[in-house]
Amino acid sequence: MDLSGSIALVTGGGSGLGEATARRLAAAGARVAVLDLSMEAARRVAGDIGGEALAADVSTAAEVEAAFEQAVQAMGGAPRVVVSCAGIGTASRILPRDGSLTTEIFDRTIRVNLMGTYAVMNVAARAMASAEPLDEDGTRGVIVNTASVAFEDGQIGQVAYSASKGGVVSMTLPAARELARFGIRVVAIAPGLFETGMSAGLPDDIRGDILKNVPFPSRMGLPAEYAQLVQQIVENSMLNGCVIRLDGAARMPAK
Questions:
Q1: Is 161 among the catalytic positions?
Q2: What is the CATH number of the domain that holds 129?
Q3: Which of 161, 179, 187, 191 is catalytic?
């Protein structure tokens, strides 16, 4: 798919991986709607790239639907590229020392990371399916979802987070197969440890232990590298129904 002149929508676009992606797609010629929980953050990024700022809580389907409608009206058409970067990082043991139940944390993590991703994909697919094909292959759109390497090697305390990202991974192939008849591709990226607001609060000792397990390059990933892969997925039509680990060959330690 040619990004030049295309309409794109990025959730979590006000910071981190989403911000880098919004900027990369805009630099490639796309018109970008920046959706974030914070309207202030969305406006900051959208203002820099000449895009449209939207605010929504992705865990609330009605807000996602309203944001898409606003994007279609403001940009004169349905987004053909939709990237889900909105998410939360949580840490909670099944059996914490205080003996408290942690089901509320688990529920919230699933609602934002998994249900939120599904809601965005659901609304995006509906909008794309009714649009005209863009090429001789019948392409109507591309959906890129964000998983995590935690889906395969989650650490202690990441049961909720790993489950949420594992759900994103598990949706990828069946979603791609279902939406193929509409000319919509679905791909997931599973990043390792990246320099984002979510990782900024990691204690130095934990960060160091994790980086020991990154063979090469032995450093944290850069949001720009995630954004680069998003662009490559959009532009390469044969990438579909797959999960791409973006992690420098890392395998996370148990804790």
A1: yes
A2: 3.40.50.720
A3: 161
